[in-house]
Amino acid sequence: MYNQKLVASIKVKGKILREFKDTVYIPFASEYSILLKNLNTVRAVVNVYIDGENAVPGGLVIDPARSVDLERWIKNGNLTEGNRFKFIERTAAVENGPRGIKEEDGLVRVEYQFELPRPVINVNTIWG
After folding, report:
1. 10 Å Cβ neighbour count for 102?
2. Is the pTM above the cut of 0.70?
3. Cα(22)–Cα(93) distance, rounded to whole angstroms?
């Protein structure tokens, strides 16, 4: 996905998966990561929702011309201990288990907002 100078791609085994219109097909039982790249000249705050839950509570700030390869849920600000993203098949065990069925199962949604650019002020000073 590319929109307003923000790129979001899904990667499996280090390779970016191809998009078909607005859909990406992830193989079952695959661990995946989400590549977020800010091509703008200002910072962006990004929220990633997987199955309707925010994987980065409070948002993730991406500096201009930088990228982040997000591979796990961020819990309590810790970038190394959350569960990795894994695409699982919806089976009877999953449906009848504690997780149940959710309306947004299988959906990855990326919301973002860019900071406002700093105003440029031209000051002409007359020295006398």
Report:
1. 11
2. yes
3. 29
Tokens read off for 10:
């899904």
User: Rounded distance, CA 9 to CA 61, Å?
Assistant: 17
CB 74 within 8 A of CB 38: no
Residue with tokens 């390869």: 69
Q: Which residues of 48-69 are buried (b: 16+ CB within 10 A; e: fewer)?
A: bebeeeebbeeebebeeeeebe
Residue recorded with tokens 């791609």 = 9
Alpha-carbon span 109 to 114, nearest angstrom? 17
CA-to-CA separations, 55 to 12, 65, 110, in angstroms, rounded: 18, 22, 10
Gap between the Cα atoms of 48 and 53, Å rounded? 8
Strand, helix or coil for residue 92: helix
CB 52 within 8 A of CB 104: yes
Tens of pLDDT, residue by residue over 95-120, are 777 777 777 777 899 999 999 887 88
Q: Where are the alpha helices (DSSP H) in the chain?
A: 92-96
Strands (E), 51-118: 53-54, 60-62, 66-70, 85-87, 108-114
